[in-house]
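User: Nucleoside triphosphate pyrophosphohydrolase. Structure?
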Amino acid sequence: MRTLRSERGCPWDRKQTHRSLRPYLLEEAYEVLEALEEESPAHLREELGDLLLQVVFHAQLAAESGHFTLADVLADLNAKLIRRHPHVFDNQEVTGAEAAVANWEAIKAREKETEPCSALSGVPTTFPALMRAEKVQAKAARVGFDWPEVRGPLAKIKEEAEELVAVWEAGVKSEADQRRLEEEFGDLLFSLVNLARFLKIRPELALLRSTEKFVRRFRCLEERAAARGQDLSALTLEEMDQLWEEEKKRV
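Assistant: Predicted structure:
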């Protein structure tokens, strides 16, 4: 990477900045998730390398600016792992994974005592929306702001769905109405994330899987229509729905 960034290096690599590389970091992280879903070690190996490249790239940019090096990043990480696992590297005892996580969060909070503190601190605003909602809810739950059991979020989902329908039925006649409709839809999504947390489902991954399932079935729909000599767009909704149901039963 130092060579690629040097005067005899690559013009593209030389012109990159921390900001210009942001979309690539996100893209590579999602490609790692895809490889994990495929359960392909070879693909995972490749994608982890691509993700690591982004870490190396950012560290090189920082080194050129005199801020820190890749060695500094690794040293800080190593120290953090030791510091936040006293039950492994010291003589503290914890019982189970949940206690280990709670201990990690407590140590993390003490480390940041000099910063303005909130129970919800530490969740990046740049997270995907479903992931951020999940993380925020989990942090609130750690201080007791949570439903006692799963019927709470189930009832809240029903309530939020009814409010969404009520706003829609009242009519969307202005930008304010559209914003209210969006707000109610967001509340419904937030409640669904809460249910996912109670069911120990990762909403971001669940939605990714459902989207991929839709893509697979839709492509099969296109293939089946083509096999009949038909163009999918020429079929009626009822005909497409029939093919869709047939595909669901087949797969």
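The first helix runs from residue 2 to 5. The CA atoms of residues 21 and 247 lie 41 Å apart.
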